């Protein structure tokens, strides 16, 4: 699986298959030394390769790299024909663009590791990640269609590039070549037969658990068939010359980094999220610790070092990692062995594959996308479980499909934050009552057999109390107080004595003692001429200054109310400037 997919994903990134092999060799070797996961297999991955291709074709459109140059003084890019890209003074090649992108990706990962901010990956929720990778899968699949049909379609970059691609594809559909079409269909059927039927059957009915390497088989057979029948003379696109050996180390072009740094940030985050998700899964299953910051450092070191050899940004590959784990591998020695095998391929076997049809590599990529594209089916599950989570997935998916990778990730994360924030905005107050003379206090809207306590109002606030909902908190409580019969009666009885009660310039201090470990019984003061309010804050994880001001206003309301707060988790001290200080004790 490693060799065919490395070659296929190398072409997917807009380079030749050799760079895919380099990317599976160097990162795996480096991760063997400094990584903490025992099962992750690092190398090229479809989603990352497609993100790389997006940046590569934006900087250097297909078949146009000879006309690009860099002006190292102006730090801009210029195209001699279209006048719409870089002005960089020296000739650019796709390999230089990708090497610089890999270096920038590694530097950003190392920077995050240096400041120990690996937690930033948590900002990408599972729904954003699933929608984003599914949308990226659509891009990967689309990029293979023209190759499988033998059609030449130019690559586009930026928002709506997929729409432009399908417009051009439909316009050129009549120019399809029958040999690539037949070859793609046969390869697809063979791979599906092996992966979906034969390998599962063998695994079920025998002790032979290692699957038959169908990808490698179709590459060997396809190359031999193409070579002996000389298919290159029938307008069948071939892989071409694959250089033997490892390229000489070359420093990346640093003047390119400002033009690709946004792509580098996105790739770094996505690669880390994929690698950590797989690593946590295996670590939990096999009971070992996974250091998140060490993983981030390992990724950064891999990208930075491998960039000098022209490698593509690497990440953990889902399919290969799962295969390694299921076959019984328990350490990164498997990665070391795989790297040594790749070294043999790079020096001896790679040059023999020059007659391999590109259509076969495209089919290998499409079949490998099965797991990613299956995530589209998760949308139905999310719809039934949580409409908010479905909305996050839906927006992330379509933003990635329509707007491209970097924009899709930014839109998905932003929408998830917005949707999460809206869950806490608005009225979150529940009025409680005693359930059938028991010690249970339940929501009066949900239960019928609840009764009010005399001179006591019970509330529960079920969200953080912050600027987004503090007004509703204040207005809801005051509205209920105004409509409380006990309050009205109490207010009329105290009206004549109110002037005496408020006379003088003394400072009234109301102290709320907030005990997190409260017993089942709530000891309220003895019978009083004031209305007692009990607010349950067990669901409140945070109170900001605006929230504290709302509490102050409730305390000050007609100065006839005693409040008792319970189970405050996080609070802050404030002085509202009106003679009332609120002291919160934990």
Automatic annotation (TrEMBL):
<dbReference type="GO" id="GO:0016020">
    <property type="term" value="C:membrane"/>
</dbReference>
<feature type="transmembrane region" description="Helical">
    <location>
        <begin position="256"/>
        <end position="275"/>
    </location>
</feature>
<feature type="transmembrane region" description="Helical">
    <location>
        <begin position="555"/>
        <end position="572"/>
    </location>
</feature>
<dbReference type="InterPro" id="IPR002645">
    <property type="entry name" value="STAS_dom"/>
</dbReference>
<dbReference type="Pfam" id="PF01740">
    <property type="entry name" value="STAS"/>
</dbReference>
<feature type="transmembrane region" description="Helical">
    <location>
        <begin position="101"/>
        <end position="124"/>
    </location>
</feature>
<keyword id="KW-0812">Transmembrane</keyword>
<protein>
    <submittedName>
        <fullName>Solute carrier family 26 member 6</fullName>
    </submittedName>
</protein>
<keyword id="KW-1133">Transmembrane helix</keyword>
<dbReference type="InterPro" id="IPR011547">
    <property type="entry name" value="SLC26A/SulP_dom"/>
</dbReference>
<keyword id="KW-0472">Membrane</keyword>
<dbReference type="InterPro" id="IPR036513">
    <property type="entry name" value="STAS_dom_sf"/>
</dbReference>
<feature type="transmembrane region" description="Helical">
    <location>
        <begin position="331"/>
        <end position="349"/>
    </location>
</feature>
<feature type="domain" description="STAS">
    <location>
        <begin position="446"/>
        <end position="554"/>
    </location>
</feature>
<dbReference type="InterPro" id="IPR001902">
    <property type="entry name" value="SLC26A/SulP_fam"/>
</dbReference>
<dbReference type="Pfam" id="PF00916">
    <property type="entry name" value="Sulfate_transp"/>
</dbReference>
<feature type="transmembrane region" description="Helical">
    <location>
        <begin position="296"/>
        <end position="319"/>
    </location>
</feature>
<feature type="transmembrane region" description="Helical">
    <location>
        <begin position="356"/>
        <end position="373"/>
    </location>
</feature>
<feature type="transmembrane region" description="Helical">
    <location>
        <begin position="40"/>
        <end position="59"/>
    </location>
</feature>
<dbReference type="GO" id="GO:0055085">
    <property type="term" value="P:transmembrane transport"/>
</dbReference>
<feature type="transmembrane region" description="Helical">
    <location>
        <begin position="215"/>
        <end position="236"/>
    </location>
</feature>
<feature type="transmembrane region" description="Helical">
    <location>
        <begin position="169"/>
        <end position="194"/>
    </location>
</feature>
<feature type="transmembrane region" description="Helical">
    <location>
        <begin position="12"/>
        <end position="34"/>
    </location>
</feature>
<feature type="transmembrane region" description="Helical">
    <location>
        <begin position="393"/>
        <end position="422"/>
    </location>
</feature>
């Amino acid at each position: 699986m490693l060799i065919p997919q490395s070659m296929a994903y190398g072409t997917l990134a807009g380079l030749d298959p050799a760079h895919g092999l380099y990317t599976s060799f160097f990162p795996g070797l480096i991760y063997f030394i400094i990584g903490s996961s025992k099962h992750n297999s690092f190398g090229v991955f479809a989603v990352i390769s497609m993100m790389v291709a997006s940046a590569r074709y934006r900087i250097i459109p297909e078949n146009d790299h000879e006309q690009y140059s860099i002006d190292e003084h102006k730090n801009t890019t210029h195209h001699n024909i279209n006048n719409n890209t870089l002005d960089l003074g020296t000739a650019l090649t796709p390999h230089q663009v990708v090497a610089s992108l890999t270096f920038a990706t590694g530097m950003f990962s190392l920077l995050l590791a240096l400041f120990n901010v690996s937690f930033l990956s948590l900002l990408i929720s599972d729904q954003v990640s699933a929608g984003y990778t599914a949308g990226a899968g659509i891009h990967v699949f689309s990029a293979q269609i023209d190759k499988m049909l033998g059609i030449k379609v130019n690559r586009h970059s930026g928002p709506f590039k997929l729409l432009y691609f399908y417009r051009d594809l439909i316009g050129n559909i009549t120019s399809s070549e029958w040999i690539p079409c037949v070859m793609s269909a046969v390869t697809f059927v063979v791979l599906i037969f092996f992966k979906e039927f034969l390998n599962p059957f063998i695994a079920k009915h025998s002790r032979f658990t290692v699957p038959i390497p169908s990808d490698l088989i179709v590459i060997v057979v396809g190359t031999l068939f193409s070579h002996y029948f000389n298919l290159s003379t029938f307008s069948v696109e071939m892989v071409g010359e694959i250089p033997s050996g490892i390229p000489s180390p070359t420093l990346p072009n640093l003047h390119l980094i400002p033009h690709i740094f946004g792509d580098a940030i996105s790739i770094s985050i996505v690669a880390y999220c994929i690698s950590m998700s797989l690593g946590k899964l295996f670590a939990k299953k096999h009971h070992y610790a996974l250091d998140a910051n060490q993983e981030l450092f390992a990724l950064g070191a891999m990208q930075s070092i491998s960039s000098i050899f022209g490698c593509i940004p690497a990440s953990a590959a889902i399919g290969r990692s799962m295969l390694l784990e299921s076959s019984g591998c328990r350490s990164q020695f498997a990665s070391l062995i795989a790297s040594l095998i790749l070294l043999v391929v790079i020096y001896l076997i790679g040059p023999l594959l020059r007659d391999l049809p590109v259509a076969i590599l495209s089919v290998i990529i499409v079949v490998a996308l099965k797991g990613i594209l299956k995530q589209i089916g998760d949308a139905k599950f999310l719809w039934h479980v949580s409409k908010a989570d479905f909305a996050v997935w839906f927006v992330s998916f379509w933003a990635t499909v329509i707007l491209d990778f970097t924009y899709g990730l930014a839109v998905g994360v932003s929408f998830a934050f917005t949707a999460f924030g809206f869950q806490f905005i608005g009225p979150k107050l529940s009025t409680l009552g005693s359930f059938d003379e028991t010690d249970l206090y339940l929501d009066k809207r949900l239960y019928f057999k609840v009764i009010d306590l005399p001179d006591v109002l019970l509330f529960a606030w079920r969200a953080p109390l912050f600027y987004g909902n503090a007004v509703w908190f204040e207005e809801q409580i005051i509205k209920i107080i105004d409509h409380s019969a006990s309050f009205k009666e109490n207010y009329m009885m105290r009206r004549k004595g109110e002037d005496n009660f408020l006379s003088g310039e003394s400072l009234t201090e109301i102290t709320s003692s907030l005990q997190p470990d409260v017993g089942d019984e709530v000891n309220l003061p003895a019978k009083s001429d004031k209305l007692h309010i009990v607010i349950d804050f067990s669901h409140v994880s945070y109170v900001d200054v605006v929230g504290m001001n709302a509490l102050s206003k409730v305390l000050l309301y007609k100065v006839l109310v005693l409040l008792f707060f319970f189970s405050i988790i996080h609070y802050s001290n404030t002085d509202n400037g009106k003679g009332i200080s609120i002291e919160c004790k934990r």
